[in-house]
Write a structure and sequence with these properties.
The longest helix has 33 residues. The strands form 3 sheets. Strands 1, 4, 5, 7, 10, 13, 14 and 16 form an 8-stranded antiparallel β-sheet that branches. Strands 3-2-6-15-8-9 form a 6-stranded antiparallel β-sheet, with no helix packed on it. It has 1 helix and 16 strands. The chain folds into 2 domains: 30 residues; 191 residues, Exo-inulinase, domain 1 (Jelly Rolls). Strand 11 and strand 12 form a beta hairpin. By secondary structure, it is α+β, with helices and mostly antiparallel strands. The structure holds magnesium ion. The site of magnesium ion has 8 residues, from strand 8 and strand 9.
Amino acid sequence: MKKKFGKLSLTTLAVLMSISAHLQAAESSDKKKDQAPPIVTPGENGSAPSDAIVLFDGSNLDEWQSGDAAAKWTLLKAESAMEVKKGTGVLQTKKTFGDVQLHIEWATPSEVTGSGQGRGNSGVYLQGRYEIQVLDSFNNETYYNGQAGAFYNNAAPLVNASRPPGKWQTYDIIFVAPKPQEDGSVKPGSFTVLHNGILIQHQTPITGKASTAAAYSGATPKGPLVLQDHGNPVRYRNIWIRELN
Ligand code: MG
């Protein structure tokens, strides 16, 4: 009797385990079906993936404006690039964005003039408010939270990953926007930045305090991408963005 009970018990256990395994497999399979990630085709050599908004591919400045007027910076079609036109002011996107992944390439002038903040200065402002500094920081001293890759006036880069003047460089930026709350407070955001593929900002907090000389102030759900005219002929190319919210 004891032996029989043991057999039954083992059989029951085996059946229960089998049912449990089937249920788990079915649940896992359903989860995969429900949550299948969208297919995105990567770009070649840093070009835009299939789900990105192309902001600049070298052919035109249609996505950009200077204030309320047409874009005034110089289009260099032969190089698929654009260049800061001194004195015309910032260039900004017509579209506005919240949380994003941004890819942008830039080059400071190969002919070196000036020093410190006067050498190859421009900047990439998320929402026109929070500047990731563009500067020739190759053998060029300045204050640390103002060098290339700094969250300007807030946080120095973790390392100096600068290429020499005139060379093309990349920023890949994950920006989580500070979010204005109903009670008037601001939920902090963050910057994660790769400079030439090297991590230089790692979830750096953004409390809502704008960078000095920002185009706009105050936290906002969405704002334009803004490129700075700091009087130096800095070039940009291959700019694309993916919306994350
Ligand atoms: Mg700047």
